[in-house]
Amino acid sequence: MLEAFVITTILCGFFGILFKKNLVMKIVSMDIMSTGVIAYYVFVASRGGFITPITGVDGADKVTYADPVPQAVILTAIVIGFSIQALMLVGVMKLARDNPTLELTEIEKNNTP
């Protein structure tokens, strides 16, 4: 059930990128899609186990530990996603100086020769 919600989040973000005409809404849709991808990655990575290898369990012979590598990858993906989103918002701010609207069709009409 949780996996279906995560995939729905990814698809909502993807279709937002395709069908929204406002540039800010496209950026928000991209952020929603990346959040869904990160949630799916965490969901898949947590299937191995829930116990951290550092603390462990005393006296347990066969315990499945959580893999710490996906946690590091997810933290890196969050930081990179935040920086990309900030860079895109700066680009939209520069476009907003020249154009009265942020609708993609209007910007294309104003900038075509």
Protein model, in words:
Its main location: membrane. Belongs to the CPA3 antiporters (TC 2.A.63) subunit C family. This protein has 113 residues and is mainly alpha-helical. It has one domain: Helix Hairpins (Orthogonal Bundle), CATH 1.10.287. The chain is built from four helices and no strands. It has helices at 2-19, 23-45, 69-98, 104-111. The protein starts with a helix and ends with a helix. 6% of the residues are buried. The mean pLDDT is 85.
Shape field = elongated
DSSP summary: helix tally: 4
Write down the Rg: 20 Å
Name of the CATH architecture:
Orthogonal Bundle
Distance between the termini: 51 Å
Beta content? under 5%
Q: What would the CATH topology be? A: Helix Hairpins
Percent range for helical residues? 55-70%
Summarize this structure as a short list of keywords or feature phrases.
113 residues; mainly alpha; Helix Hairpins; 4 helices
Layout of strands and helices, then pairs:
Blueprint: H1 2-19, H2 23-45, H3 69-98, H4 104-111
Helix pairs in contact: 1-2, 2-3
Short description:
It is a multi-pass membrane protein. The protein is mainly α and 113 residues long. The radius of gyration is 20 Å and the shape is elongated.
